Amino acid sequence: MACRSRLTPLIRRAAAPGLLRSATAANSVPCAARCISSTAARHFRGSALRRAKFTTDTYPEIKRDERFSHITAEHVAFFKGILGKESAILDGVTAEVSGDDMEPYNMDWMRKYQGHCKLVLKPGSTEEVSKILKYCNDNMLAVVPQGGNTGLVGGSVPVFDEIVINTSRMNQIRFFDDVSGVLVVDAGVVLEVADQFLAEKGYIFPLDLGAKGSCHIGGNVAANAGGLRLLRYGSLHGNVLGIEAVLPDGTIVDDLSRLRKNNTGYDLKQLFIGGEGTIGMVTAVSIHCPQRSKAMNVAFLGADSFEKIQQAFREAKIQLGEILSAFELMDSYSQNLVHTVRQNKRPLEGEYPFYCLIETSGSNSEHDAEKLGNFLEDVMSKEIIADGVLAENETQIKSLWAQREGIPECLGHWGGVYKYDLSIPLGDLYKLVDETRKRIEDAGLKGDTDDFPVVDVVGYGHMGDQNLHLNIAVRRYDKRVEEVLEPFVYEWTGKVNGSISAEHGLGIAKKNYIGYSRSETMVGLMKQIKNLYDPNGIMNPYKYI
Amino acid sequence: MACRSRLTPLIRRAAAPGLLRSATAANSVPCAARCISSTAARHFRGSALRRAKFTTDTYPEIKRDERFSHITAEHVAFFKGILGKESAILDGVTAEVSGDDMEPYNMDWMRKYQGHCKLVLKPGSTEEVSKILKYCNDNMLAVVPQGGNTGLVGGSVPVFDEIVINTSRMNQIRFFDDVSGVLVVDAGVVLEVADQFLAEKGYIFPLDLGAKGSCHIGGNVAANAGGLRLLRYGSLHGNVLGIEAVLPDGTIVDDLSRLRKNNTGYDLKQLFIGGEGTIGMVTAVSIHCPQRSKAMNVAFLGADSFEKIQQAFREAKIQLGEILSAFELMDSYSQNLVHTVRQNKRPLEGEYPFYCLIETSGSNSEHDAEKLGNFLEDVMSKEIIADGVLAENETQIKSLWAQREGIPECLGHWGGVYKYDLSIPLGDLYKLVDETRKRIEDAGLKGDTDDFPVVDVVGYGHMGDQNLHLNIAVRRYDKRVEEVLEPFVYEWTGKVNGSISAEHGLGIAKKNYIGYSRSETMVGLMKQIKNLYDPNGIMNPYKYI
């Protein structure tokens, strides 16, 4: 595709390989929460100042619920009887297990949360999950359902000695229909595995996120993961056709419909989507997969104000319509930090207060290129966009995406990041970043030297979904910074009727803040559901609501 | 758009005006359940043999739940106090009300179900709904939430003397955001009104169905209406962003989020989508609306087998991808009956066992026409499709759509129709029609003269959604026909893991058949939810589960 005359040509850059996503599929589109395997994460974080504290130290106010039993040798023997083989159990109760072996189950990949779990169970079937949960419920043993453990809010790791029930051995693709695009998988199937399977059939998984290489689909569904394809393909609430789950009393919720339409009663599966394993454990998922697009184009644009970015978004929806597959926002602060860390050449020659990345996916490359070209000429002639580049090949596409995806990693360069994942009505979306920056500056916390904890306050995110990632890059975690940020950010978000968790969920991180996004009535109704399904409270305790 | 050389040119036909949909919007795409206003429906059905029986006569086994109070003058006085004005109440308890005035609330538009209601309340606000429901709950007065009353399963009309709470006075568009496409409406806003409002802004309501001129959005959501845009825009479970509803105890469920992403707790609103007013009454809806497509193209194709139709569908998904907006199936039997009733010229010169209607919607007319043209050439050169026509203008588009949409009305020509709305895995989808026809023939029930009750057995539907409408056109309702059809149709559907109600819901029509699509466990879990929210059972009793 030729660059338009009014656009700056893209200069091909060799970005650091580690910062490029492993684009196994042509139009893979990772999310802000870049996946790094546990080992890689440890290595990455090893250079930072963050230490792996126990969650019980970070949150000393959380006390172990003494209704829960302590795990005994008898319990372990029972589980061994169910699971049969040694490899399905990691037993730190009756045997010695090294910390290294237990750590991947006790700690999240960001090394922010760490539990005291001593028993990991890896069932191989839904029936095994049912037996395990029934026994745990009968014996008041608390559990944590766990998939790939790639969450960002501590939802998939224990706090105290909860038993981890890990889905890694439930990893079969059960069914695929080549005509309807319906896929049925075990909860433990890795997202990228499913997507590669689908790619061979000409289909695409309607969810994509940075953690695709290690996250489990059951976990994605339990967390109601969002990611970038949401703009195009919608949320899991619409795409998931059926769920198989196990309730704490062992009941198997056999709601694994393969049908796109099924109006026979309450849509109970929806409670498990985004339920974060607090009312039951998802063991299989049926999902409607769309046709994979043959063509992908990416443009990177600079604009003089957030208002102009909003205009560009409106025009993109009108002019690109059905082929628009991503519209990502980045502010200059985020791009400056990426540049500082990587020392790479910027995509555009000039610098602008705001940037956006636009991706199109369609079935005809020429048509898409023409639409995108026309759109770019239009928004530049109307001076909505100040400058822009179009990627000419797959390498350049990756390179442009790296400017957006690289943000989370680059922000971590100085030591740590305070991360907020917010939904905010579009008109107000960037105001919060400006106001937060001003508060941090007014408090004298931001500066260029080690005397100041804060490096910068940046905003980026899935603009097409009103989803802002407000990030504060710091040299160290500092109570003074926290006091400036919280509850301010949550209060501000609550005032504009935003969501304090757009796509990351509640977990332990946001359990106490739900009141900023939900009324007392709603929280009360949610607790009613929790009590209905999990009256003993054994499912993923100390979290969510 | 020029017809391709290998395609039969479309001969412009003047279809009977009454059979053309009133296409107020360029790409309005009605569903099988064609909307007719109450008066029109009566007129239409007046020529048929169907009589308006009381539901209590059709289902003598249903007994009035004696826990419910009978409405007294005191109750009526209370409601008058809440609602203030006369026009908000239709009071057949303490005053005389003509049968004609009460009929639209007591009877569905198909005149299949009729209740004995004597009190209709039309609240003007959510608060009024809350006061009404709380009072009803406290006084054990059963209620039926009612929107436009366009359902097909008797879900929105009373059986005995339940109080109708009608949403017609709650008809304000509350909010629209031109950038995000988020629309918030009262439950009583008519679908077409909302869609016309959106059309002016360049947006489209992500749901369309034949009843759009009279159905209420609150009712659409309560019924989880499907329709034709589902193939393109997905289901209401994905598009509805928020709901305001009132529980029987008067609690206002204030879950009216305007955000595309909001991962803060259980997604309770989903229980009201498709809940058919059995756990609460929807009073407002927030919904994500997509960009309206500027271009629409329609093709009508003939094929020699159902296998070839499936191949055409697969190719359409691949080649038309993001612009495919409808793929509708019609068998020769349905088209023959349309032709017999209308005596119109058929779209294709030859006759084929199967037909499909393909619609595309996109942002660039030329691109779309090229894609569709290439697709048609391809499927004809591969002999997947035997013949086809492309519409060249809006009139021809309407005319082709009339071949599909006209089916339900034409089938009613002889007196009545047994209608089944089923989801069936694609490979098996048409087998049921063949088997049903054979059973009817074997029983000696089908023939060309008045001696035979059955005119024909036809299949059509939303192929793209695996949604079959199996219809049996009859000269009269006949117990022998019913015995051949039921439980056979439901058993067959259950055996292939289909759904006995794809998009019409359960209502009273399918309450007793849910077991064919849902396990005892699932039905038990649903009853648990019903009991949780409506322990007195006052919400829309005698229906659903």
Protein described:
Chains A, B: It comes from Anthostomella pinea. Chains A, B: Pfam families: FAD-oxidase_C, FAD_binding_4. Two copies of one chain form a homodimer. With 545 residues, chain A is α+β, with helices and mostly antiparallel strands. Chain A has four domains: 17-27 and 293-410, Alpha-Beta Plaits, CATH 3.30.70.2190; 38-166, Uridine Diphospho-n-acetylenolpyruvylglucosamine Reductase, domain 2, CATH 3.30.43.10; 173-288, Uridine Diphospho-n-acetylenolpyruvylglucosamine Reductase, domain 3, CATH 3.30.465.10; 415-509, Alpha-Beta Plaits (2-Layer Sandwich), CATH 3.30.70.2740. The first copy, chain A, is 32% helix and 18% strand. In chain A, the strands form three sheets. In chain A, strands 13-10-12-11-15-16-14 form a seven-stranded antiparallel sheet, sandwiched between helices. In chain A, strands 5-6-9-7-8 form a five-stranded antiparallel sheet. In chain A, a hairpin with a 5-residue loop joins strand 7 (240-246) and strand 8 (252-255). Chain A starts with 37 loop residues before the first helix and ends in a 12-residue tail after the last helix. Residues 1-49 of chain A have low confidence and may be disordered. Chains A and B meet through helix 9, strand 8, helix 11, helix 13 and helix 18 of A and helix 9, strand 8, helix 11, helix 13 and helix 19 of B.
